[in-house]
Amino acid sequence: MGGEMMVKNMPLKLGHTLTVTGIPNAGTNHFEFYISSGDDLALYMDVRFNRYQDMRQVVCNSHQAGRWGAEVHQGGFPFKYNELFKFTITLTCQEFLVLLSDGSEIHFPNRLGATEYKDFSSDKGVLIHSFEIN
């Protein structure tokens, strides 16, 4: 079983790409990945396996000043229980570009507008294998 993963003070700057690999825990309903700035979430990524009437989807959002933004539902669903996944996140001034392993993309606005984010975390539904910024 995977636990929470938290990385602090590892800067993702404009133009840099974060690559994450991991394995979703068997039977988990979902797992979440976060890029945060203080108490705000710049990117909240919820990989949903069988929540909400068996709909498998990746949902992105942000949480700023105590409020959630509008959800973004894009991309495919290349995630499988107990199988290694890989996704990349590239930070630009305008957006987080998430590239999933099936070649699909998620374009999520950089709503906080920062040029650097240093804190990343995930929840208990996934075991993170690697985490790299370049």
Automatic annotation (TrEMBL):
Q: Name one GO cellular component term.
A: extracellular space
Q: Which UniProt keywords apply?
A: Lectin
Record-linked Gene3D superfamilies: 2.60.120.200
Q: Which CDD domains does UniProt cross-reference here? A: GLECT
Annotated transmembrane regions: none
Q: Where is the Galectin domain?
A: 4-134
The record's GO molecular-function terms, alphabetically, read: carbohydrate binding; galactoside binding; laminin binding
Protein origin, superkingdom: Eukaryota
What is the designated name of this protein? Galectin
Which species is the source of this protein?
A: Gadus morhua
